[in-house]
Amino acid sequence: MTSSWPAYRRYVHKDGGVLWDALRADFGDHDVPVVIDNQERKTMRLEEAIDLITETKHAVYIKDWHLVRSARTHSRDSHFFLPYSTPALFADDWMNNVTTLGNPSATYPNASDAWLASCHDAYDQDDFRFCYAGTTGTITPLHRDVCMYCDTNADTSYSWSTNIAGRKRWRFVAPQDASLLRRFPDQRTSELASTYDDMERRYANHELGAYKDGFSGWPGWAEVRSRVHVVYQEPGQTIFVPSNWYHEVENLTDCLSLNHNWCNAYNLRSMYESMEHEVDDVTAALEDVRDMLQSQPANQCPWQAEFVAIVQDVVREDAGWAWDGFWRMVYHNVVHPPCDAMFRPPDVRPLIRELLSRFLLRAETPWLASSSTTSWQRVADWLHVSPVG
Questions:
Q1: Which of 38, 283, 302, 371 qualifies as a FRET site for 388, CA 20 to 30 Å off?
Q2: Cα separation of 147 and 130, whole Å?
């Protein structure tokens, strides 16, 4: 699947390693997030990060680099270099359908990628498409994927990851075991287990157990450690990560990979419920702020509107978006579908009507700022004028 990708042809050495000099030549002036020695986080130019990789012994991991978005921004006045094309299996992608222009019907697999590459209004839009490039031993600790907070009863986004160069080890934990990864299993917001190796070291040292019994916490590790699924990913292979599966990824060699976080109508209900959980948790955590606002003298802005705005800002910072982004995504994808009908489920209007009805009953909805109101109102208007199938 990857052999025809420009990224594979251009950035893989004949020995299978990463061609760092080619990456530097194409994207050296791009600003990228970097983790050094699995601890220090900073933003630097890609050429500086590659210098660290090739000239020092530091463990360097370029993570969460929005390669496609960054490449578009840097190539406004020149031919856009499209490093890869989204596999047709993952074409119905609501999170990365970032242009306002109408998508023509796809006449061949991956047509939407070529179309997006020419859409100038997509240059500055955020997305959930990432490039990862790291040295041997760099790691992404146990986590669930970007976009939504959730518990064991609600799903996050999906993800897929294609290894362009190098070899990775993935460790997966099933959704039903999520509570066993928490320091305090009954608390949804409790601290999560770090890396598998670190937890195993602490387990061997008899540090883990119920906090009330004098241990550090994570009493569930003794049970979950035997149910960790291990997968080795070779060059050219693609891994699909289902919603809500925890996973840890370790680079066993120098690696280059391309990743998408994505969603569509199949997990929209659970993503909506995840947003509800996030908003409710942040609202509860900011109870002291609410009390302070209520006690202040009345002004032109009701305290409820001010408090809801604060909650939405925190949710947006934590989860990557809030109610305005969620409803904007829904509206955009029903009006401008990301792919041809053959790759999409049947009519989604009954589902969206159900979710909107629930949303309109929430306490914060009347106090949301105009951007959120506009987003869900557009969805309501679309439901009203469109016939129900």
A1: 371
A2: 13
18 and 34: one domain? yes
Three-class SS state of 132:
strand
Give the DSSP H/E element, type plus range, for residue 241: strand 238-241
Residues 375 and 282 in one domain: yes
76: domain CATH number is 2.60.120.650
Domain match, 292 and 258 both: no
Query: Tens of pLDDT along 19-57?
Result: 999 999 999 999 999 999 989 999 999 999 999 999 999
How many distinct structural domains can be found in the chain?
2
Q: Work out the angle between the directed axes of helices 303-319 and 323-335 (0-180°, nearest 10).
A: 70
- Residue 239: strand, helix, or coil: strand
DSSP 313: H
CA distance 108 to 149: 35
Helix (H, G, I), strand (E, B) or coil at 203: helix
Least confident of 140-149, 178-187, 209-218, 222-231: 140-149
Work out the angle at residue 257's Cα, subtended by the Cα atoms of residues 256 and 258, and round it to the nearest 5 degrees: 140
Rounded Cα gap, residues 108 and 105, in angstroms: 9
Judge if 14 and 154 occupy the same domain: yes
pLDDT tens digits for range 94-153: 888 865 554 544 434 444 554 444 444 443 455 788 999 999 999 999 998 755 444 434
Q: Dihedral sign for Cα 134, 138, 144, 148, please.
A: negative
The H or E element spanning position 326 is helix 323-335
| Residue 84: pLDDT band with limits 50, 70, 90 | confident
Residue in this structure with the two tokens 């997990």, named with its chain if needed = 267
Do residues 161 and 305 share a domain? Answer: no
CB 167 within 8 A of CB 244: no
**pLDDT given for residue 323 in this prediction:** 95
Residue 80 has pLDDT above 90, yes or no: no
- The residue among 262, 280, 312 that closes a domain is 262
- The Cβ of residue 72 has, within 10 Å, a number of other Cβ atoms equal to 24
Provide the residue range defining the domain that includes 102: 6-168+233-262
